[in-house]
Fold:
Amino acid sequence: MSENGFFANRGVNVKVSGLTKSYQTSAEEVKALQGIDWEIASGQAVALMGPSGCGKTTLLNLLGGVDHPSGGKIVVGDEPLTSLTERELERYRLLKVGFVFQFFNLIPTLTAFENLELPMLISGVSPAERTKRCEGLLDMVGLVEKMHKRPEELSGGEQQRVAVALALANDPSLILADEPTGNLDTENTTAIAALFASLAERHGKTVIMASHDPKAVEQFKSIFQMRDGKFI
Structure:
């Protein structure tokens, strides 16, 4: 367990082999991923870069268990995602993966504290532990004094920090971030990117962040370029 007392789960290895994903439109079949092989070690922070439509978001959705591949295999830790039932995938998404998106995805009628508390309620965390974890996570992202503010009362950078804390609510091993700095200024972009890098360096989480912004990935030691559904 890390020094803050609420990160017990370390990162996981991620391995994909022969991974493909195709979408059928009215006009044609779109090949979003074209047979990629990829592996990253537990506790790494890696960035995916490439233009819109290159396959970054598709890959994150597959790793997060929110979409199904057309072919190939995905193994996250000891979870063979392509073999899991829908019920098992629901549990995987709730407990093993933390998602961060470009558009914050906070519930507007709930406070920062209540947003963080919700996934813990769903997973059966006790009231005392929920309070401890909510306060600790908000303190980690520098917002404990604003825990009772609703999203509309927070700046864009503050909302994204709440979103990062929310992704960590159930202590997942894998953090997936899809263009998390897309709506932020340079100062907040740097701060959020540093926060993601520290999750791997200080807490051993596996972090995969997709971005097209060179500034956002400066603090990542491993950067993978994608184009046309492949790594280049």
